[in-house]
Amino acid sequence: MKIKAKELRPTEQGRSPKLLEIETRPGYYKWWAKKSELNDLLKGLGETFSNVKDDIEKEDDLYCIYVGIARTSLRQRLNWHVNDKHTKKRVENGFLSTLRKSLSSVIAKDQYDKDKTNDFIDKLVVEFFYTGYKTKSEESTKKLLSIEKNLIGKKLRILNIMENNHPKAAKIKKRLQELRKEAKK
User: If you count Cβ atoms within 10 Å of the first and of the last residue's Cβ in the chain, which end, N or C, has fewer?
Assistant: First the structure.
């Protein structure tokens, strides 16, 4: 199921109704961006669309920029990615979600800049998939990690660092790691 990230934000009445529709069970997810947002990311990473367009997964007018897994709860994981706080303690101790850490570093050049990060996330779409695996089981963890590794291996995922061995990923990962280090100061 695909949903606009901004639909997972809290409302005046409290938690997002769309977020509450997402089940609290294991699964995996893909983050998608339109070409304009993809180009913003690529520019920040020192890459061009023409150089990677055939390597990035595309569906309709969306490009997959990141994949991940939720070992226990898709709802909790997606909430963390969309609604995480950028407090000094969370940034300094590395508690921001990996996605937010990367986006804030590339887009805002500052991991403390929650507003710019949120504005960018609100332009993205997240697609999620449930699995039939038991929560917190060793079998579930192994299978989800295998799914994640397989997804990362199939196409270029510009914001995935771990297990990203795509031939064009090395330069992008190096730049992303530099940006993340600089943006944490």
Answer: C
